[in-house]
Structures are given as structure tokens and as C-alpha cells.
Amino acid sequence: MLFDGLARRAFSLGGDGTAEAQKDPAPTRRLRVGLALGGGAARGWAHIGVLRVLDAAGIRPDMIAGCSIGAVVGGCYAAGKLAEIESFALSLTKRRVMGLLDFHLGGSGLIAGGRLQKLLEFDLGRLRVENLPIRFGTVATELVTGHEIWLTRGSLVDALRASYALPGVFSPVRLGGRWLMDGALVNPVPVTVARAFGADVVICVNLNNDIRLRGTVIPDHGEDEEGPLDEAAGEPPRSGLFSQWLDNPARRRERRTAPGMASVMIDAFNITQDRISRSRLAGDPPDAMVSPKLAGIGLFEFHRAAEAIELGRQSAERALPDILEMMDAALAVPGAAKGSLQAVAM
User: Fold this and answer.
1) Can you give the pTM of this predicted structure?
2) Torsional class of 272: left (φ above 0), alpha (ψ -120 to 50), beta (otherwise)
3) Annotated motif GXSXG: location in the chain (predicted)?
């Protein structure tokens, strides 16, 4: 354990069994801890449970990098507003979630996002990213170019909105002369940002590790299964230029069983995040990873915050012994930490 290891290095037992300070105690190095909070829509409420456990264990980050919902929770934590975001999440019901979605037609997203923006501004006001007590940054994706944009200064609310602007759902946000959308398209779990901020150790929270999407290459798509077709009652015969194609049995089967738009969007988002997360984490792995078991919570089930927070808490408690052991080992390695002479968990 980290605390035990620090105590052993600072004290030794005297002959009578009492604690006796060493004559020349070695100064304790301080690890600069970075958190990388991943994207995952409603599953992101699990970040709250993880942060509560880490905070109770005395692990307080020096820098936080967030993406999408991870940016929202991480930004609120960095601003000292974790209690407020937790209270808001727990207050959500299906009806209230629908009331927050200002649908509009003719824009570049189904939801304008104005109502959510007002809620963020109520708690975060005019806070700027560069003035937060904890160093914070979030990731967004530039429209057209696909550039990965790190938002490390300017309006905190605008940075959060840009990072969670899911394509097709929220309208993109214009910042610095660029149109920005969800950072999960390029860096769903921004370990790289936390490292660039100077973290000695990085703890990441991956919200999608439990979704179990392990796609591979299938060289032959196979044949459609044959079977009787249940003809739609009362469907009139088709006529015209495309009637033969439209009345093809396989085409009729596809029309009746094709997934809806919501299902397509959710599956596409899950697949994209899984593939990109695996690639990015393989290239720059964290020092420790917390992976809540969130497969049973849908991407847009924001009203299930209590369940997600509890699952985050459970996953952090399972990972805590390994995290503390990793940090203790890092402190024992000469030159592993370059910060001031103070223990990280006090």
C-alpha cells in the first residue's frame, strides 16, 4: 500500500518497539498524477463514482484530461463542482432528459444544445480553463480536417460543449475559427493529453472496455438465411420502374428487419469508440486503468445515473489496491518523479 510504503521509508522501529524517526530520512518525492477520463455518453456518470473513491483514498490529480462526458465530469471536478454535477445527474428522469433536449430542424444536429449550455453556465459561469485550480484540458475534433484539437484555455463551458458535440446529435461548436465536434472521434481516452501535461503516472477511466466489441475481418459475408416471409398485411402491389427490385423477397425481408436510426447511431458510436480506444491505448498505455462494467447501460440512458455512479465506485474500489501499489513502486524508482518533495497521498 502507498501509505504503508511511505511510512516504512520515513520511520524505523526502535529496540523497544516504538517508532523512531530515522536520523537522515530520505526526502519523499511527489508524483504528479494525471487522470484521463474517457467518453461514453450516459455511461460517463460512472466517472463520478471513480473520482469519489480516488478522492477518499487521498489520490488527488494534478491534471485532468477529459473527452466528451469525461470532459464534463472532469471539468466540473477541476472547478470544484463535483457535488453539483452529481446532484444534477441524480435528479435526471426520462421526462427531464427529454425536456433538456431542444430539438430543431434544419441545423447540423438534432439538438441545438442551448438548454444544456444554460445549465452549465449556471454552475460554471464565466470560468476559464486556464484559471482552474487543477490543470485541465479536453479534446475535440475539427470538422472536415479531422484534426485533434486540445482545448486548454478559454471559456470552460465552450470547451465542454465542443468536446461532447456528438455528430448528428449536437450542433458543432465554433471556437478559434474552427468548427469542433466530439473528441471521441479521435481520442476517446486522452492519456496522451495527461502525459503532455507532465503527469508522472496516468490513471485512465475507460467506459467502453466492458462493451466487448472485438470485431475482426470476415472474408466472406455468407448467404441470407432462407425461410418463409410474412407478407405485410394489406401491402398493395408495387408498380413502376423499380417495382421488380422493390418486390424482391430479400429486399422485403431487409425492409422489415433493418435496425432503426437510433440503433444504427448507437452501434456506430460504440464500434468507433472501441476501435479507436484500443488503438490509442495500445500506442500510449496508461499506468493504471479503471474499467467500469457498463455494458448494461445505454449510451443515452442519462436517467440511470445512480446505477452508473455505483458501477464506477465498484470498479475504482477493485482497482484501488493495484493503483496504490503502482504509485508506491513509482515513488521507489529513483528519478521516477520530478515534482516537489511531498507525498502524493496525504
Assistant:
1) 0.77
2) alpha
3) 66-70
